[in-house]
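dumping these here so i dont lose them again. two proteins, back to back, each one seq then C-alpha cells. dont judge the mess
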Amino acid sequence: MALNTLIRRAFPSEIETLADIAFVAWERDLLPFLSGAAASRHAEQERLLAAVRDGLDRIIVAEVNGVAVGWCQRARGRAYVPFLFVTPLLQNNGVGSALLRRIESMLELEGADRIQLDTLADNVRAVNFYQHQGYQILALKSEGRPGHETQMSVRLEKRLDPWTGPIDDIGQ
C-alpha cells in the first residue's frame, strides 16, 4: 500500500508524540531482544523523551494525513543516524525508507560521502531493512555498561554521492 507521506522538520509541540512513536516501536521491535536493565520500559521512555527533546533540531518527521507516524534523527556533526522509528501499524509501507532517503539527501548536500547507523544484531528484520536500503555491514560490536548484560549490535554503512556543486536559488 503506497502512502502519501510528507517529510518535514519536527516541531516543539510534538516532542511527546514523537517519543511515544519511538517507545511503541521500541517495545514491539527491540524489547524482545533485550534483558536486564536494557529492557526497562520506564528507563527507555525517559531516554527516548530526552533524545527527542535534545535533538529536536536534527529530527525529520513522516506525516500521513496530518498525523506524525515516524521520525528519524541525525547525529550532531557527523553522518550518523542514532534513531529511526515508524509506528508499528505503518511499518512496511515505505515510511522508514522515505525518512532514510531524506536524511541521506540532506547529508549529501552537506558533502557527506557515507552514512552510518547501528541496530541490534539479533534484529534480523531491521538488518535486512537497512541492507535493502543499500547499507552494508561494517562491524559487529558489543554494547553495554560494565557489570551489565551486553548486547551485540551491527554497524551498517552506506556510501553517498556528495553534492560538490554550488547551491543557490537561481538554479545555475
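---- next one ----
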Amino acid sequence: MLTTYFDSTLLSLGERSALHIFIIGALLYTLFSTVEGVIRNYIAARKAGLRILISPITPYTLQWRLVAALLEKSLVRFRWYRAIDWTCAWQDGDTLHKELGDCFAVVSPGLNVVCTSDPKTIEHVLKDWRGFVKPDNVNEILGTFGQNVDTSNGDDWPRHRKIVAPCFSERASATVWAEAVSQSNVLLSEWLSIRSADVVQDTGKLALNVISAVAFENQHVSKPTKGHVLSLHDALTTVMSTSISPALEGIMPWLDLPILRHLMPRSIKKLVLACDEFKGYTTELLVNHRSSHSPTPNTSSNMNLINTLINANSADAKARLSDSELRGNVFIFTVGGLESTSATLAFALALLAIHPEVQEWVREEVDEVISGNSLDNMEYKDIFPRLKRVLAVMFETLRLYSPSPPLPRSFHNANAPFSIPTSDSEKAVVHLGPRTQIMMNSWASHASLNIPNSSPNTEFDPSRWLQSSSLSHNTPGFYPWGSGPRICPGMKFSQVEFCAVVVSVLARCRLSADKEEVEAVLQGSKADPLLLGMRGKVTVQMSER
C-alpha cells in the first residue's frame, strides 16, 4: 500500500510538472509570437512613412473582442485602442487624425491597420471593389445568417447585387413613401394625445411597422408566431444590440452543442436563442413565399421585398442565390430598414427639437410643397424630388451622427504589398506591406468635411448642403452610404422613408425639448456593437400647429 501511495504521488507530481511546463511554454510562445509579429509589422509601417501606434492585440480578432468586452473602461485610455474601437472613433471625430495625420498606422502582432480620413484615399479604395475587399474578421456578424450583398466579395458580389437590385425599384420607393406616411399618421395621433414622444423608442416602432409592411407583408413581426419563443423583431434587435455579439463570432457553431448550452451565462443563451429564432423565421418566410407565390412579375397586390427577392432569384439560374444567401440578404434588408433608419430618424427629430430655427426653416419648405393638401393624397413622385431642405436635414444628421461605422477593407491578396494615393503633396502615394487592412474612418472624414462658405463643422446646420444648385451625397468626404460601385443599395429607400416621416411630423407638429438633456444623450451615443445610436431616453414635446 505504501508503494502504491508513493507511486501515485510521484505520478501526480509528474503530471503537475508537465502541465506547468506546457503552460509556461504556451505563454512563452505567445509572448515570442506577439513580439515577433509587432516587430515585423512595425518595420513594414516604418517603411510606409506613417505615424505609428502599437496595439498588443490584433484588432477585430476573437481575442480582441473578448478583451474589449471585459476591459473596455481601462482600454479607452490608450490611443491605439481609441483609434480602432468604433465608439471611440466616433467620440474622437478627427482629433487623432489632426495629431497623427490623415493616414496613420496601428501596428499589432497579426496585421497593420491603416486608419484614414483622407477623401482621396477613401474614394480610391471604394472604387476598386475587386482590389479592396471586405475583411471576414470585421464582417462576420453581418454574415451570421448567410453571405449577402453587404458581406460578399469578388465575383459573388455582382451576383448578389443583380438579384437584390429589383427590390429597390422606384415602385418600391413609392410603397415605402406611402407606408411611412401612413405609419407616421398613426404615431402622430398618439404623440399629440400625450403631447410628447420618446423619439428613440417611437422611431424604432415606426421603422418596425414600415419594414413589416414593405418586407414582410404586414406579418405580426412584433409578436411570436406558432413554434417560436421570440418575435421576429425581438430576435433581430437582440442580435444587433447585444454587445457581446461580435465577441462570439467564430465560436457560434460550438455553442450549438447541448452540453455547452447548459453552461452558458444567461446573456449568451439569450443571444444564441435569438440567432436560432431569426434563422427559423427567415427560413419559414422563404418556404411560405415559395408555396404561395409563383415566380411571376410582382403586382401591386403581392409586391414586397422578400417576394421580389425570391422572384428575381428564381428567374436567374446563373446568378441564383442559395437559401443561406437569401436568408443573409433578408437579414441585411431588415437591419438597414429597421436599425439604421430608426437611429437616423431619432437623431434628426432630437436635433430639430433643440434647433427651432432649423425646424422653422424646414417647415417653410414643407408648407410650400404640401400647399394645404392632404399628404395622404399626394404622390411620392410629385413630392419627394422637391424636398431639398428635408433631405439636407438628413445629410446633416448623418454627417454628425451616421449610424454606420468606419468602412474596413483588405487588399484582395492579403500577402501582397500594395499602394494607396493620398492628398498629401509630399507623400502622394503610400506603399504598404502585406497583412495590412484599411479602416476608412468616415466619422473623422465627416468631422473635417470641407464645404466652402459653411458654418463650423461642429454646428448642426443643414443649410450647408444647399449652397450649390444641386443637393448630392457625392460630396467628397461624405460616406454615410459608402461610395463607388458598392454604395448601399437601400440608400434611396432610407431617404424616402426619412423624408416621409419628417414631412408628416413637421406638417402637423412643433417640436421642443430641453437642450442640455438632449445634448447629453447625444454625446453619450455608442456604436454598440455595430451601429451608432443613442443610449438614453430623449423626450420631445409635441404641440399641434
